[in-house]
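job 3f2a | input accepted
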Amino acid sequence: MKYLTLAVGLGISAAVVLVVPGSGATASMQSTTVVDKPHQVASKYLKQRPQWIKCGDEELRTYCTKITVPRDWANQYSGNDIQIAVSKVAPAKGTPSRVVFGNPGGPGGAGLGMAPYLASHAPLAKNFLAIGFDPRGTGGSTSVSCDGAPGYTMDARDRDPGTRDLITEASELAQPYCDRQSRGLLPYITTAQTVQDMDLIRQLLGFDKMDYVGYSGGTWLGAYYQTYFPEHVGRFVLDSNTDFTGTWLDTFAAQPQAFERRFREDFAPWAARYDGKLQLGSTPGDVIRLYERLRRSLKAQPATEEFLDGAVKVTYDENTLDQMVTGDMYSKLDFHSLAGDLLFLHDLSAAQAKGGPRAAQRRVDALPAARQQQLVERAHRATTGLRMLGGDDDSEDATFTAITCNDTPWPQGREYGEQLAARLGPHYPLVGWTMAENPCFYWHRPNLTMPTPTGKGLPTTLMVQSVHDPATNYGLAIEAHREYAGSRLLTVTGEGDHGVYGGVNHCADRIVNTFLTTGVAPATDTSCKGEGIPAPTDEVPGLDESTGAPLQRIAGFTKAVSGYLP
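job 3f2a | predicted structure (566 res):
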């Protein structure tokens, strides 16, 4: 299975008018009304009184509800309403003086966990009402689905015409599947609609202004909220930035270089430094060559293994390997886990090449149950932050696809994506060859035009970015900062984590917390030194969503408070 799912390769790029007989896709998309400015809210939505219920364990102090919003904010009296799941955590004592919303990115990532996550920050806990929500299309909100759509199981590096035809066919089929499964909602899964959902939540909570912390794809959402509702903007923190002043194509086309840099300049030198423990190679080049040899071996002979006494079956092929590597580039805290997995796969593949599938299975059977459980969990984990399509939550993947394909125009047709892959692939093979694997090349967009965010007339926006971020290239933050009036850029140097605030960088946390609690931003652009990559321990770490990177912690909180709403 491929981790860079339906549209990833993260080099998303395009939209062609695709008419599939009987799909209904063309008709539903063409009926959409342009949403380029906020609409006055009908009184029926303002009069609702949400009923809050406790969600999650007692110590999380989290309450959840659902609010009703129109399917299309431009047609509020059509009778087609949907539900948005919302979470909140109030201060333990007293009345909150401010409200802070959060979004974990994706775009389309479920965000109920943002409320307890933000409330876990001591500087925010005293005076802030912390708010999380599942954006329309995903999680506990009214959802969309692309269930059954073909994925990209082929090898994107294979330039055979037949393989390229299969990539095209899979991309063409995505929208018909998504549209058929989504009950007419798909054209309305856009940032323009979502920001209006956010503002209704604000109004129902009774606050004139909102503060905001958005990660990754959440920076795009935050900038558009500021653009649509400037009079209600408080203190906005945009962490690990898309180029929200451009198009989604701009953001995704910059990913191959960023992922390759993170792998070659951060992971490989670190692994080589600790070769005595990790056994992946004594130089960065050795580590990279081991990955390439392993990829060729798993492509020639995939390994399908049974774990936990046959309870779970996992197939390792070249795409699984790429998924593992790219997924662990987001946080340095995952580097040791990746090193352990690479060594395991190296030994597994060698055993299979020498003794066949039974020899490989014996390798798995010899592992302790705890290690088998780690491998199973890591094989099935979802991506956080700026998604590369292909996680376990279909609604999150479908929402990701809809937003990125619906929001902004894409170059149309097969030719552009293949040229992009051919240009980027040789230089950045980890992700670059996947540029053509993208439904947006064949996506018939709704009739939507959104204003370009400029930052003009807004309070100071604090942007936070690490220089080797793999998913949102540092160059994107530079470009957005240059075009976004009044913004301040906090750069974390010597660092590459995707998602900074709430992680391990105390300097960055101090600056962000000062801004959120006092409104005082750095007078000029500033920087914090990275904390460095920790040395490997004696044991390969498993997944720990309570102590991991910020986006992993948010995902853990979301899991803990989801499923309580009817």
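job 3f2a | The longest strand covers residues 81-89.
job 3f2a | closed
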